[in-house]
């Protein structure tokens, strides 16, 4: 069942990106994002073996605007690191590493909407699961994909 759902979500996100003539980062986010979200939902972990290559690849794809991409990554990741330092129970270290990578394809003007949308998606997930402890990675990934694709 999980494999079917994974294939469906990946295919749907890939198709939307293709129809909208999205940038290459949208396709990378679709591939890595679906897998990372499923892992985080099931195990409450974001493995470095996937988050670090994703961040490097997203930064590499933004080579044409490397300075702005690095600044966006630093701000987005730094904001998540600040939350992690102030309230460690609110966010895991994997979310922070993921946020640094996900900041690269986002424009500076999209950072605040990405933070708000990812938080709203995480709260929605908590409401749907009727749980207090839910992973933040799926919200981060979905928000970043939406803002880079749509």
From TrEMBL:
Molecular function terms, GO-annotated: aspartic-type endopeptidase activity
Transmembrane segments: 102-128
Record key words, sorted: Hydrolase, Membrane, Transmembrane, Transmembrane helix
InterPro entries: Prepilin_IV_endopep_pep (IPR000045), Prepilin_peptidase/N-MTase (IPR050882)
EC number: 3.4.23.43
All residue ranges annotated as the Prepilin type IV endopeptidase peptidase domain in the record: 28-126
Keyword S-adenosyl-L-methionine carried by entry: no
Family under the similarity heading: Belongs to the peptidase A24 family.
Protein name: Prepilin peptidase
Native source organism of the sequence: Lentzea rhizosphaerae
């Amino acid at each position: 069942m999980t494999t079917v759902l994974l294939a469906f979500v990946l295919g749907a996100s890939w198709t939307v990106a293709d129809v909208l003539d999205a940038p290459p980062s949208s396709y990378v986010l679709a591939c890595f994002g679906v897998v990372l979200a499923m892992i985080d939902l099931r195990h409450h972990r974001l493995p470095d073996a996937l988050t670090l290559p994703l961040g490097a690849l997203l930064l590499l794809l933004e080579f044409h605007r490397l300075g702005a991409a690095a600044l966006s990554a630093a701000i987005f990741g730094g904001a998540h690191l600040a939350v992690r330092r102030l309230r460690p129970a609110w966010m895991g270290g994997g979310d922070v590493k993921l946020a640094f990578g996900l900041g690269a394809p986002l424009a500076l003007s999209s950072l605040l909407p990405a933070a708000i949308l990812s938080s709203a998606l995480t709260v929605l997930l908590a409401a749907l699961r009727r749980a207090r402890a839910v992973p933040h990675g799926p919200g981060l990934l979905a928000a970043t994909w939406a803002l880079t694709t749509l």
